[in-house]
Amino acid sequence: MRSDSVQPHARTYAPWLWLLLFLFCLRVLGQVLVGFFGVRWLPPMQEWYSGLLAYPWLLSSQLLIVVLYGKVCVDFTRGAGFFARPNRGLGSGLLVFGWMYLLAMVARYVIRMALYPDERWLGGTIPIFFHWVLAGFILLVGRYHRRAAG
Hints:
mainly alpha, 150 residues
């Protein structure tokens, strides 16, 4: 199959990828609303932000993720483009990375719940949940590439 040909199978993944990107965008928007505009009907900043990275750097990295994931979504919607071209090696790499990422975030959740039992089940979990969303996106793209490349 030519590398510039349309990949109709990619289009079946597009709605799920867009949904995951939308969820992540809501997270970024929510944090911006709380951090910059003092919105009080959303959880406070400490619930959105673990503090491991200075917020300007975190926001910049989140916006880069939105742009990159947006490009992936556009390519899958079109069924063409760099990210829609089946690549078994890319798929394998994304699946390994995605599972490691997801399992690390599950472990982070378990550790947090053990360290802060008074916050069970949802205390401090906004960042963790959205890491699951990002990992899900990576796993879905990896699954597509592994299956589509044969």
